[in-house]
Amino acid sequence: MKTRSILAAAAALSLALTACGGETPAEDPTEGATNGAEVSPEGIDDGTELTMWTRAPLERQAKNAVEAYNATHENQVILEILPNDDVEGKVGGAIQTDTLPDILAGDVVRIPYWVEQGVFTDITDHISTLDVDNLQQGHIDAGTIDGRMHTLPFVTDISVMVWNKDLYEEAGLDPEQGPTTVGEFLEQAKAVADLGKDGVAGSYLAGQSGGALVFTLFPMMWASGEEPLGAGGTEANVASENAKAIYAAYNELANTSNGLGAGSKEETGATWTAPFQEGNIGVMQYPYTAVTGLFDTVDFEIGVAGIPGVDGNQSTFLGGDALGISRSSENVEQAWNFMSWLMSDEAQQTVFADNDDTASSLSVLENGYADADERTLIANATIKDGRTPVAIYFNEAFNAAGSNWQLLIQDAVWGDGSQVDTLNEEISATLGG
After folding, report:
1. 323 by DSSP, 3-state: which?
2. Residue among 317, 109, 319, 312 nearest 225 (CA)
3. With contact defined as beta carbons under 8 Å apart, do 369 and 376 qualify?
4. Residue 429's CB: how many other CB atoms inside 10 A?
5. Which of 55-59, 189-193, 257-261 has the lowest mean pLDDT?
6. What is d(CA 34, CA 39) in angstroms, rounded to the nearest whole number?
7. What is the pTM of this model?
8. Which of 272, 279, 284 lies closest to 297, judged by CA?
9. Is the distance from CB of 189 to CB of 261 less than 8 angstroms?
10. Which of 137, 150, 260, 388 has the highest CB neighbour count under 10 A?
11. Phi-psi region of 109 (alpha: psi -120 to 50; beta: other; left: phi over 0)
12. What number is the average pLDDT over the span 85-91?
């Protein structure tokens, strides 16, 4: 297996795209749909040059996919890597001038808004030629509107619970057993905090990063049987009793000496993963694309598990990027050739599994990691319990700087929790558009 470079900061930043303004929605979000016409399952491979945009945090995976495709096809994909902070402006400008690339990849939580704005071509009939049940559904659901499908999975990033086995052993904990409930998470974090070691804390939280907070806390809610979003993504449910129990655990850590790492309250996501990477955190949620890069580079042992709920179970945030054919493309069948190829088990194995990345094919997840690190198998097993939140105004409600979601966490974890119900209502108002 190949050893990854450490992508900690990039993975954290990939969760916090801000909304673009001034976009002009298409007259029909299903522009370019096949409307039931017969389509080829493989598309056309005739030497067409295709353009594609993707985000910088996922550059390595995108290059792996494009290089593998270009080496085996007549069509050639020209990949452009966009700085994470430039994506919204670039896409917004291209919408107005109808100059989007043939293939567009984007943050899965932003996909519903783009679909609603008519950014993508309706490829329902193309997708229906695939074994859709063998693909992780979160990135497909994100691009579905009124039953019409526009996107497929591109790069799947998941959140997992990680712990420092060396610190666990020092604290008298079983280094092979991570938390299986929110209560155990609290107990284990406090045990590490009680070591009283300089610079070492029980856990860490990105208090000012809405994206990192949903990536880490939503799975705890899902595992607890809660739906943080309701009414088709237009209502928030982040003030439930289980949600408050999760916040209470973090509030207790915030009020415990060395409970939460220094800087947690102010953390914007830019350095969110660094404290664990440096060996200074006992247990926390983490992007799996970042943690695998640490296995062979840090001087401590790392444990990996699913993210638990209040009373058990597990879940994960199916993050990363989804992929679609833009409404500007005049090469729909050629672009589909790339997308359909990428969904094949052979491509999923070569591009993702063989590079220790998370495949979107369920059969590859089950059978394609025979030589993988055991922790990768554990992480892959959480995908069946994972979710992707779908809401048109998700970015504005949760990820945007100063969002009511950020304010809610600040109040619940570092305040007295008195504003949680009110802020939940404010989030609902934003989600409702």
Report:
1. strand
2. 312
3. yes
4. 15
5. 55-59
6. 8
7. 0.85
8. 279
9. no
10. 150
11. alpha
12. 92
Tokens of 106: 């984007």
What 3-state DSSP class applies to 106?
strand
What angle, rounded to 10 degrees, do the helices at 210-223 and 404-414 form?
A: 70
Asked if residue 185 has pLDDT above 70, the reply is: yes
Q: How far is CA 233 from the centre of its chain?
A: 17
At 30 the pLDDT is 43
Q: What is the pLDDT of residues 97-151, one digit of tens each?
A: 999 999 999 999 999 999 999 999 999 999 999 999 999 999 999 999 999 999 9
CA distance 50 to 65: 14
pLDDT at 36 exceeding the cut of 70: no
Task: Give Cα separations from 433 to 82, 392, 395, 429 (angstroms).
Answer: 28, 8, 11, 7
Q: Is the pLDDT of residue 166 over 80?
A: yes
Q: Is the alpha carbon torsion for 321, 327, 332, 335 positive or negative? A: negative
- Cβ-based neighbours of 138, under 8 Å, separated by 6 or more: 108, 153, 156, 318, 386, 387, 388
Domains of the chain as residue ranges with CATH: 38-157+319-368 (3.40.190.10), 159-317+384-431 (3.40.190.10)
Compute how many other C-beta atoms are within 10 angstroms of the C-beta atom of residue 334: 25
